[in-house]
Amino acid sequence: MTTRTESKRNCEVGEAGGDAGRRTGSMLHWVLFLSRPFGISLGLFIALNLFLALKEPILSATNVWLGVPLSEPWRSLFASILGVALLAPHKLGERRWLRLLAAGIILGFLLLVLSNAFAYYHKLFSGDISTHAKFPFSLVVALILAMELARVLAWRPARLPLPAPAKRFFGTALVGLACFVLILAHIYTFGMTDYSQNARGVQAAVILGARVYRDGTLSTALRDRVDRGVELFKDGVVRFLILSGGTDASGTSEPMAMATHAMRRSVPPGALIFDLGGNTTYDSARNCASIARDEGFDALIVVSQYFHNARVKLIFERSGVRCYTVPARPSRPFRREVYFLCREAVAYLYYLLFHH
Questions:
Q1: β-pair type (322-327, 299-304)
Q2: If DSSP codes are grouped into helix, strand and coil, which group holds residue 322?
Q3: What string of pLDDT tens digits covers the 356 residues of the chain?
Q4: Count of C-beta atoms within a 10 Å radius of residue 57
Q5: For the chain, which terminus, N or C, has the lower number of CB atoms within 10 Å?
Q6: What are the Cα distances from residue 113, in Å, to 64, 120, 165, 170, 223?
Q7: Whole-angstrom Cα distance, residue 247 to residue 225?
Q8: CA–CA separation, 1 and 4 (whole Å)
Q9: What is the pLDDT of residues 45-68, one digit of tens each?
């Protein structure tokens, strides 16, 4: 027969277990709530790419996160199925059949993205690519989809003790921050990857210009780029180096200074091709695409700092030339790396939207 003391103890244990369960459930609810802006950001990115792909297929950047054997705009149209599921209002989860439909869509795309990550690691371990990041952007997307899948399956009504204007303000701010973080993740993971070994048959590497001092000395960033291009030439990866840059106000030509440095490192003059009008990355892409057509190059390798390469890939391929990026090896640590990453995140979004 249970005593009064034992009953009280059992009651206390049950209350403690209930409190622990409520705390765990509340914690899970907040984790899923904080992950929601990333799901919305991915959905907005999908919607934006669909708009661009329907306007002109070459403008789409859907292949940044989804590698399926579909040409544009069909790839972006296919991705829009996920976009609808991610952007659907949370309140629609009240209907069980809608929850199950959304969960099925998210799960299907999660498996596709994981297969992309598997393909990435297969290339990494087979030596087709190399990287210091050790994880692809597809894994970042997979994590977002996993969290969104959990949110849909563990659906509960949203109860935030905030007035409507505050909810809108904080919701917009969180989505904006999530968009920025996603762009940074793409810039880092893509830029750190060296695709030169995967670029079999590519005959030329583009070295993008940077600052040259008045005495003709290359800045550290530019010297690192040229040295990496020279390595590609000496290793037999490419037969030509395209030196792309502008001329500053003092009359110092970036391509000519780059050529002097390359020839000092035993690159013959006949292996150098000049683009003297590469004042911006956009100009370099257009000019080098023209050079590639004139010379009969099917694709180009482009060398720059890792934080620049995502934008380089976007601009060059929009210019009509297949592009493999290679990060320059830094000869010394970057002093303003965070600044350059943040600047590139803003520039990437700007070029994605406005540089067609």
A1: parallel
A2: strand
A3: 455 555 555 544 444 445 544 554 555 566 666 788 999 999 999 999 999 999 999 999 999 999 999 999 999 999 999 999 999 988 888 889 999 999 999 999 999 999 999 999 999 999 999 998 888 999 999 999 999 999 898 887 766 666 777 777 888 899 999 999 999 999 999 999 999 988 888 999 999 999 999 888 999 999 999 999 999 999 999 999 999 999 887 888 999 999 999 999 999 999 999 999 999 999 999 999 999 999 999 999 999 999 999 999 999 999 999 999 999 999 888 788 999 999 999 999 999 998 76
A4: 14
A5: N
A6: 11, 11, 36, 29, 37
A7: 18
A8: 10
A9: 999 999 999 999 999 999 999 999
Q: For residues 79 and 158, what is the distance between their CA atoms, to the nearest angstrom?
A: 27
- Measured in whole angstroms, how far is the alpha carbon of residue 312 from the centre of its chain? 12
pLDDT digits (tens, 9 = 90+) for 97-124: 999 999 999 999 999 999 999 999 999 9
Phi then psi dihedrals of residue 3, to 5 deg: -80, 165
Q: Provide the pairing of β-strand 130-131 with 193-194.
A: antiparallel
Residue 225 and residue 208: Cα distance in Å, rounded? 7
- In the chain, alpha helices (H): 4-55, 74-87, 96-126, 137-153, 164-191, 220-234, 254-264, 281-295, 309-318, 337-354
Hey, is 251 helix, strand or coil? coil
Judge whether 133 and 126 are in contact, CB under 8 Å. no
Q: Strand, helix or coil at 130? A: strand
* 216 Cα distance to chain centroid: 35
3-state secondary structure of 163: coil
> In the 3-class helix/strand/coil scheme, how is 284-305 assigned residue by residue?
HHHHHHHHHHHHCCCEEEEEEC
> What Cα–Cα distance (Å) separates residue 150 from each residue in 28, 40, 46, 158?
10, 15, 20, 15
118-121 long-range Cβ contacts below 8 angstroms, 24+ apart: 119/67
What per-residue confidence (pLDDT) applies to 13? 44
Non-local CB neighbours of 86 within 8 Å, separated by 6+ positions: 39, 40, 42, 43, 46, 106, 148
